[in-house]
Structures are given as structure tokens and as C-alpha cells.
Specification:
single chain, about 210 residues, alpha+beta, three-stranded antiparallel sheet, about 15% helix, about 40% strand
């Protein structure tokens, strides 16, 4: 543990998660339920409390609707810990000169579950309904994001990792019940996801 290693795993995982959800389009309908215009929901990486603070701060005003995402925990996934093997040897392209197969050693990564909270703030109920309808049908019960083994692992190729993003299946809705005449009306919702990720150890060993 004296050897510090950082492979940007969590950052890359969260970037893919945000990319998967950061395309929510909301239609504005007339009385005949015909779409007249479209707007894109603001997407921010921040806790709900930070978003609300920015909403009431006139110098940092955020326009509704807003979808806020924040990471709330990282836990080891014991269900994906199979054994205590030190790692794997991964083949590279065959050597032209000798015909031998070069290999790289990859220390066993640690399976982790990354907990993510998604908070939704809207001014209109129809906006909330559309945002919910945008992602719920596709998370039954999960979606899959793709990322790469950290390049610092010195592998021959960029190996793809596919991680499940599990939706917990619950959305808690909240409506203001006691607001002043100057306080804006907002509808809020909260839901959560679990991303099946990996954290890697330092790799300094390769074999030919």
C-alpha cells in the first residue's frame, strides 16, 4: 500500500454514467397536446443541496428543470470476489521475429459498487413526468456502460470493461406544502443507481 496508484477509474465510470443520461429532452405542449418546442434539461454533477443553493443565489442562478447527480458511496462487492488469485496474464500480438506470444500481467482488480443519487428539480409536473419517462423504460432493471482498463496498466490493447448500472426501481417525489408568496414552486424527485465497477492495483510486471 506504500505504492500510490490512481487510474482514474471512478472518474471514467462517472463520466460514462453522465454521458448516458445527459441527453434528456422535454417537449412543451399546447392544449391539444401537440409539441410546440423542445428544451434540454440542465445536467449537473453536484448534490441536491448545492443545486438548491445555486437556485436561490441570484449570482449563480440555474434554470429549471435540473437533473443533479452525485456519488454517495463506494463499497466492495463481495458477490464478485471469487478467489485470491494474484492476477492474469493477457496475451499480446505474436512476435514476428520469434513467433512467441508476449503477455502482460494484470493484477486482480477489486470489484466495487458505486452508489449514485439522482435528484430532479422541475417547475412543472409535466416536465417531471417526461424526465421520468425518459430513463425508466430503459433501466429495467439496468443499462450497461462501457469504459477501458486504465492505460497505465501497460496492456497491449485498450481492453473494454462493461459495467452494469442498476436502478433501484424507486422514485421519491416531493411537493412544496408551505411556501411564501415570493418562493418559487418546485417539484423534486430522488432516485438512486448502483454502478458495478472495478478499482485497479499498480501494475509494473510484464512477461515475454
Amino acid at each position: 500500500m506504500k505504492t500510490q496508484y490512481y487510474g482514474f477509474e471512478i472518474k471514467d465510470i462517472m463520466k460514462q454514467f453522465v454521458s448516458a443520461f445527459n441527453s434528456i429532452i422535454i417537449d412543451r405542449y399546447n392544449k391539444d397536446r401537440v409539441a410546440q418546442e423542445q428544451i434540454q434539461a440542465n445536467f449537473v454533477y453536484a448534490p441536491k443541496e448545492r443545486v438548491i443553493h445555486d437556485l436561490v443565489n441570484k449570482n449563480q442562478h440555474l434554470k429549471l428543470p435540473v437533473v443533479a447527480v452525485s456519488m454517495n458511496n463506494v463499497t466492495r462487492d463481495n458477490d464478485r470476489v471469487f478467489n485470491k488469485i494474484p492476477g492474469f496474464y493477457i496475451s499480446k500480438a505474436p512476435s514476428v521475429s520469434a513467433g512467441a506470444v508476449n503477455t502482460n500481467f494484470l493484477p486482480s482488480p477489486i470489484p466495487v459498487n458505486i452508489g449514485v443519487t439522482m435528484d430532479i428539480l422541475t417547475k412543472f409536473q409535466t416536465d417531471m413526468d417526461q424526465i421520468i419517462s425518459n430513463f425508466v423504460p430503459y433501466n429495467n432493471p439496468y443499462i450497461v456502460i462501457s469504459w477501458k482498463v486504465p492505460t497505465s496498466q501497460n496492456l497491449a490493447d485498450n481492453l473494454e470493461i462493461r459495467s452494469e448500472v442498476l436502478w433501484d426501481g424507486n422514485i421519491s417525489l416531493s411537493y412544496p406544502t408551505d411556501i411564501s408568496g415570493t418562493e418559487p414552486y418546485r417539484v423534486s424527485a430522488t432516485t438512486s443507481f448502483t454502478i458495478k465497477g472495478w478499482l485497479f492495483k499498480k501494475n509494473s510486471d510484464s512477461t515475454v
